């Protein structure tokens, strides 16, 4: 039986429900997880290459510079679970260095990218059992019994944790702790506090790639949910909220307008905004506290010279 078509329908229905719920609220919002359709993922890859977007480059530099130290701390690990389907150089750096690693399990809800990644890694690491798991990593993951269960570590790079509000981030870390079990570890990328001007240009870059990335969400809704957003009537806004220590992305309506999505109509006043993303920036002390609330202790962390980013090793 073809399971793919019904699954796609369920996913689409969920997308529609989330969009309608978000745009029906008094303060309109859309979940940032919907940024990543094919075009959105391409645009995100372009963002990662931008001079202004320090995040990816800085994390990569930390991983390269401290690869030996990080690997020494994780030398006993037999099962590595990556949250998100990491095909990146960062993942490969870890796989190259972890001598006792038997199983590498990338976890992602989007299966297409997950299996592509797995095929490439399987080819390059023939000794390793590469076992993709199609799952929602915000929930505890039940690891197959065939995986070595004693020394399990999770890897969550990219500072994706910053896209969750702190109370959600604690829940997510609790789920990861349950996956790793007592004594297990989490290596996580955390974006740190820094001058506002640096953040502003990283999230509102001169080339306008982030603007296109943000606006692409409306293109996606038009295409997949039979909507009629006039994209030129919205603009990208990136704003730093210092009280909450986070960048907030919005799509702002330039005029008074009506938008139809399926059977539903939505009204926009001039200047009205849709919140599309939070990107929280932490101090080491704040993130240590957040991790503690989820049952993790900080073992060690590594940063760059400017202290823009931290790769932190946590233990349950
Ligand atoms: C995926 N995430 C860590 C990115 C960030 O920096 O918060 C998403 C992003 N949004 C705009 N630029 C990049």
Walkthrough of the structure:
The protein starts with a helix and ends with a strand. The relative contact order is 0.16. The strands form 3 sheets. Strands 1, 2, 3, 4, 5, 6, 12 and 13 form an 8-stranded mixed beta sheet that branches. Strands 7-8-11 form a 3-stranded antiparallel beta sheet, covered by helices on one side. It has helices spanning 4-24, 38-49, 54-65, 67-73, 89-97, 111-124, 166-180, 196-203, 209-225, 284-293, and strands spanning 79-83, 103-108, 129-130, 133-134, 152-156, 185-191, 234-241, 246-253, 257-261, 264-268, 273-280, 297-303, 309-315. It is globular, with a radius of gyration of 20 Å. 40% of the residues lie in helices and 24% in strands. A hairpin with a 5-residue loop joins β12 (297-303) and β13 (309-315). The protein is α/β, with parallel strands linked by helices. The mean pLDDT is 93. The structure holds N,N-dimethyl-L-histidine. The site of N,N-dimethyl-L-histidine has 11 residues, from β11.
Beta-strand content bin: 15-25%
* Main sheet properties: 8 strands, mixed
Indicate the radius of gyration in whole angstroms. 20 Å
How many beta-strand elements?
13
Compute the number of helices: 10
Net shape: globular
Approximate helicity band: 25-40%
In angstroms, what separates the terminal alpha carbons? 42 Å
**Poorly predicted tracts of residues:** none
Q: Which H/E pattern describes the elements? A: HHHHEHEHEEEHEHHEEEEEHEE
Give the integer mean of the pLDDT values.
93
Bound molecules: N,N-dimethyl-L-histidine
Structural class: alpha/beta
